[in-house]
Amino acid sequence: MNAFVAGHSPGMTKTRAYRDGTLQKEDFPVAEAAAVLAEPGTVVWIDLCEPSEADLSRLAGDLGLHRLAVEDAVQEHQRPKLDRYDGHAFLTAYAVRFGSASDRPQTSELAVFITPRALVTVRKEDGFDIDAVTDRWDQAPDLAASGVPFLLHGLLDHVVDGHFDAVQVLDDEVEALEDLVFDDRPDTDELQRRSFRVRKNLTRLRKVVGPVPDVLGSLMRPDLHLADGTTRPYFADVHDHARQAADHLEALRERLTTVRETQLNLQSDRLNLIMKKVTGWAAVIAVPTAVTGFYGQNVPYPGNGTTAGFWVSTTVMLVLSVGLYVLFKKRDWL
């Protein structure tokens, strides 16, 4: 029994075999892949979850996978890319799961070996929804005759749709921030926290979404023969969606910068308005103060010279001071 079969439970491995565009068998052992491929007109898909380099060595020998590609397939944090080797291509991409803008986007790294008659997907962790990919294949049986390009298109279409959905979540959050900026009494601290969180999420997404259009553009090159005549329009559609997601992401970065600049400008305007109002109040109070101070007036007030008068005057000053504080606080001047 090979190392892969001994080291992993059956639930961690998925396989399919298509012959002449028809699904023939599923969930057969990886050790049988070479025998299945020996049958004419057969295309195989193998999915491995969290394999080690030793796990891939037997499969690499059967399919002629390059050693450097195998190393990249098990190492984490590879950049999205498409590498070309003799007899096969190697692709790295990231799926994104994003519940809401308050969450941190969860990314699942995916390595893909693309041979003329086999597609091997290597998931670095179990967060990638591979069942959604197989459902997408089942919904497009008319493309199955294309073989590996059909499998690759369904996989990339699912990944790019996830990118588009994640960018849309952030678009909704940026729009909410734009509305919050123009509230009559915006919560400045909350606005800054949400802006900073969205900026961090945009940066994370940009690393995994931004390079995808170039990767797909390279994949569609005629000399690589990774997209046939039937699937080429479908790959072009996925490429267009990936470009839209990347461009939308860049537009959101600019909009978020505009939100921050607008917030600072509005804060400056409100501060100037408050200073103008407070200065007006100070001017009103300064006039009688200046007059009485200049002439040294000392007008007796009710209770002058008595203990009760002292407490009355003190109470009046406290009430007026507290009243001004409450007024300024209510108007958000303090």
Give a description of the structure.
This protein is an alpha+beta fold. The chain folds into two domains: 3-264, 2-Layer Sandwich (Beta Polymerase, domain 2), CATH 3.30.460; 267-330, no CATH class. Helix content is 57%, strand content 15%. The chain is built from ten helices and seven strands. Strands 2-1-3-7-6-5-4 form a seven-stranded mixed sheet, sandwiched between helices. A hairpin with a 3-residue loop joins strand 6 and strand 7 (118-123). Helix 5 packs across helix 6 and helix 8 packs antiparallel against helix 9. The longest helix is centred in the C-terminal third of the chain and has 64 residues, at 232-295. It is rod-shaped, with a radius of gyration of 34 Å. The termini are far apart. Keywords: Cell membrane, Membrane, Transmembrane, Transmembrane helix, Transport. It holds the Pfam family CorA. The chain crosses the membrane at residues 278-296, 308-328. One of its GO terms (molecular function) is magnesium ion binding. It is found in: Cell membrane.
Q: Quick gist of this model?
A:
The protein is an alpha+beta fold.
Attribute tags:
single chain; 334 residues; alpha+beta; Beta Polymerase, domain 2; 10 helices; 7 strands; rod-shaped; disordered N terminus; MgTranspt_CorA/ZnTranspt_ZntB; transmembrane helix; membrane
